[in-house]
Amino acid sequence: MLSHTTQGGVVELVLDQAPCNEIGTAMVEGLERFLGGLDLDATHTLILRSAARGGFSAGADLRELHAGLVARPAAEHEPALRAFLDRIHAVMDRLDTLPLTTVGVIHGVCFGGGFELALTCDVLIAEKSARFCFPELRLGIIPGFGGIPRLRRDLGNAVIRDLLLSGRSVGAKKAHQLGLVAHLVARGEGLAAARALAEQSGRFDPVARRAAKAFIKPLPRAELDREKELFLELARRPTLLAALTKFVESTDLRPYLP
Fold first, then answer.
1. For the chain, how many structural domains are there in total?
2. Helix (H) or strand (E) holding 61
3. Is there a catalytic annotation at residue 51?
4. Does residue 95 belong to any structural domain of this protein?
5. Does residue 123 lie within any of the structural domains?
6. 63 lies in a domain?
7. Which of 55, 113, 114, 190 is catalytic?
């Protein structure tokens, strides 16, 4: 599911969970273990990428979410959702604020929670196949892993409103034009570009590099907390469970697409 290699101060973390790196309990546990064992003193760059053919990540594990809600009485839904959100937010915030250069390599689908995971990275490199999307409104909720505050930190509100309220996906070229991704490369060239960036970043003084990152990438704490509460408010309604039921019963090969 998760594997990593280390060479010359660069750690490459690979997501590889079929069908397309859905983010549920297993993924969160894997990320927690990885972060717990990361040697910050010996590392200057983290490269995050996917080995899944379909893309970086299709988003939250909606089948697991549905099963968890169905298995619990309604009174336990919010405490269970809050507990999971607290865990995933802790992981996302840790990735966001690592005293390293973090580089995300994106290909194929980068939707929902996967998009939110990508947004924790300092620099995004997109292959031409990449597509970004926030489809959460079709479930009656908003992104809940910190996506809106992190995206607002980087882009204008007009772009965010369009992505969120339309549910449309944005291709790699458009994402590059908007400033969402720093580098646009051909299919299959994302990792090489990330490694070249890592080599350059590793030449800089580590104290200055860490200070620069902390200065230019503050954590939007208040907005992250508010997003979580709004997600939980919306999730109290029967709309979410009904939409999840429709999702798990779908015979569409790609039911996560809006």
1. 1
2. none
3. no
4. yes
5. yes
6. yes
7. 113
List CB contacts of 109: < 8 A, sequence separation 6 or more.
Answer: 20, 54, 55, 56, 57, 58, 131, 133, 256
Per the domain annotation, does 84 fall within a domain?
yes
Per the annotation, the verdict on 199 as an active-site residue is: no
Q: Which residues contact 186 (CB under 8 A, 6 or more apart)?
A: 127, 128
pLDDT value, residue 253 = 55
pLDDT in tens, 136-187: 999 999 999 999 999 999 998 899 999 999 999 999 999 999 999 999 999 9
Residue 28's φ and ψ, nearest 5 degrees, are -60, -45
CB 112 within 8 A of CB 134: yes
- Among candidate residues 12, 22, 127, 136, the one labeled active-site is 136
The reply to whether 29 belongs to the active site is no
113 included as an active-site residue:
yes
Give the domain extent around 137.
2-189+212-249
Say how far apart CA 128 and CA 20 lie, in whole Å.
18
